[in-house]
Here is the input.
Amino acid sequence: MQPSFWHDKWASQQIGFHLDEVNALLIANWPQLQLNPGAKVFVPLCGKSLDLCYLAEQGHEVIGCELNADAVEQFFSDNQLAVTKSFQGEHACYQTEQVTLYQGDFFTLPSDYLSDISGFYDRAALIAWPEAMRLSYVQQLAKLIPPSSLGLLVTLDYPQETLNGPPFAVSDDWIMAHMSEYFEVERLSCEDVLAVNPRFVKKQVPWLTESVYRLKRKG
Here is the structure.
């Protein structure tokens, strides 16, 4: 899972992880966080997700981090948004009204860029990492997120041996074992989604569940 893996995916437009609509689980569950409309919200490994637009439409100031420059530029062009570009350290900074995207390595993003956020959202970041790298992501996320920040996490789980990720399988046991040190964790839902994921059906994956968690950064 070197950076070149993701750059190659974007270059060849093999971006099955990108949805052409706002994620339904975000719409259904975001209100449960009860964040103020003006709250700043962080979206790690955001790609060109339309979820960024949804969060901005809720009145939030949205801050994203994405490795690939094409993904960032496509977000602004696809949504016909005027953008200004500058550089802050080793990250390029793209800004429009209510949305700021830092293009560069998530693991070197300075925590002071996110010092005043109060919310975060992860749909396709945690599940993008194989298990050997996943804990490093969680530790960096915890480093970046201020205490008491509230977040929504969406995961997938299935028998990992039946399919090569990404997305990688993340079990409820893994979440509780590795994230509860940093976050208060509450699972809001867990649904069988195999029938609506033809890639998994084609590979004869026997079961697939999608879970939604409410997280609160411990102080």
The longest strand covers residues 183-192. The beta strands are 40-44, 61-66, 84-88, 91-96, 99-103, 119-122, 150-157, 183-192, 209-217. Residues 131-144 form the longest helix (14 residues). The CA atoms of residues 40 and 116 lie 7 Å apart.
